Fold this protein.
Amino acid sequence: MSDTSTTTDFGAIVVGTGFGGIYMLHKLRDELGLTVHAFEKGGGIGGTWYFNRYPGAKSDTEGFVYRYSFDEDLLQEWDWNSRYLDQPDILAYLEHVVDRYDLRRDIQLSTEVTGAVFDEDRNIWRVRTSTGEEFTARYLVTALGLLAKTNIPDIPGLGSFAGALVHTNAWPHDLDITGKRVGVIGTGSTGTQFIVAAAKMADHLTVFQRSAQYSVPSGNGPVEPAEVAQTKERFGEIWEQVRNSVVAFGFTESTVEAGSVSQAERDRVFQENWEKGNGFRFMFGTFSDIATSQEANEAAAAFIKSKIAEIVKDPDTARKLTPTDLYAKRPLCNEGYYETFNRDNVTLVSIKENPITEITPDGVRTADGTVHELDVLVLATGFDAVDGNYRAMDLRGRDGVSISEHWDEAPTSYLGIATAGFPNMFMILGPNGPFVNLVPAIETQVNWIFELIRDAERSGGGVVEATQEAEDGWTATCQEIANFTLFPKAQSWIFGANIPGKTNTVMFYMAGLSAYRQKLAELAAADYAGFARTAGAPGPSRLPGS
Ligand code: FAD
Ligand code: NAP
């Protein structure tokens, strides 16, 4: 006889312990009273901030809004002393949160979830791990990270390199590049941060650039205790503003179109924001249409190009560093990116003009026959973003359909949170979630998932499942919004264009956090429209104490 018992090892299993998994574990365990177990494949908690230990790794969201907002005491207690947070500081913060809420006892580190299958007879999830264990739970929450599955480029001879070959997302804890001959492939957010820091440490740094980048100053610098105190006093209004803004970066987005003012005024505004610093501020705080109008975009691009010409001394290096495409990737900011190429110990190789032909034991050979000799080769080549970690798992919903089969054409979801055929499974930062500062997006999703699970538990459990119709509708909405922007026209991870063979598709909701939150509130008020819900066992609420 088949087992139809609804008894499970845990109320919920959470996969991943970055910002998303940590907060979800706390909410479901401490506020809902479920038994919860979290799995983390890394040797420590922190996700992004555990793995990315490369020199220069830091947030590009300003530190005062790159943190949780749910704990008002913590907001008052936790200090910071620079405008952006360095990787060790963010990791220390997350470690503190885990200890503060005594979460460690329910986190199993160094354990990858290798498979999860929905058992339709019992309406439960069966979860398998790399440690050979199997556990059951009513709910599965996947907080796998959208920038967490490493992209290793397919370059001939890569394995033959005799020095240290590292990807920035797996930076060895003990690797020191001081005084070494270092090469880096990739000039995205990661590569540019690394280049600025590594140039000051390495004996020589060779940068292998495929696409030139638009980078503006970050404006990083010390923050005095008095400013920290003032910010703490204003946290109430700050979070209110963040939640009601578009990109949620802690500044007010512009409502002025670039074409509505004179060239002189445009340049004044660009200069003012160049001096203030921050990539999102430059794209969204200068004018309202940089990411949507070709003309406005070209004006911003022209301003940045004029800065490259002004800053970079060698004309050929300046030419190579000057982008020729739209300014429509995730906007970068750095502490002196273009200035770094004026240093004597930095060489720029444009691999569009002079491609890499192979990696040899000694270094990188380019088409002109040169072998660039290296001790350390750094791959800052990014991620198989958004759905990469989902496909890496044997994740199966109804009828044994795998997530890769369900996402055969492209990764989709309802609200970035749920996907049809995968009942009682909730994703944090799943496909087509908001393209914003991610910590407030994570908090928004976790709070909403928490309320949905609470609602389900109060009515005796059962299953909650996004309908295919709702998922298709959300995908169409995301596509429509994205098409209104210039982002699909640039080749980047945002649309999956960075991975050879990956479908180029919409992967984000680009209408901003405020609109997203409003939509979530409307749907919750409409009894979670778009979700099919079946009742659980009759009887009282399953929640303790209610
Ligand atoms: P992650 O932190 O990626 O955590 C996911 C966790 O899931 C990982 O620990 C992973 O090991 C684990 N996992 C995945 N699959 C499995 C499995 N099968 N079994 C067990 N465990 C699994 N965003 C911003 O908004 N602002 C920034 O300034 C910013 N800076 C960034 C800087 C860097 C260097 C990088 C790489 C990203 C940055 N991001 C930034 C994006 C960042 O990823 C998010 O802000 C946030 O940290 C994501 O948290 P998360 O919990 O969703 O995912
Ligand atoms: P990325 O933006 O995808 O950049 C990857 C870089 O590697 C690009 O320059 C790309 O060139 C190059 N590349 C990829 N494959 C290559 C190949 N086969 N040969 C040569 N070059 C190759 O990845 P990322 O820099 O890691 O950033 C990803 C995201 O993580 C960011 O957009 C951001 O959201 C987040 N992040 C944020 C920060 C921060 O500032 N706080 C720091 C790091 C990461 P092309 O451009 O030509 O494709």
User: Anything to note?
Assistant: Residues 295 and 465 are 43 Å apart (CA to CA). The chain has a mean pLDDT of 96.
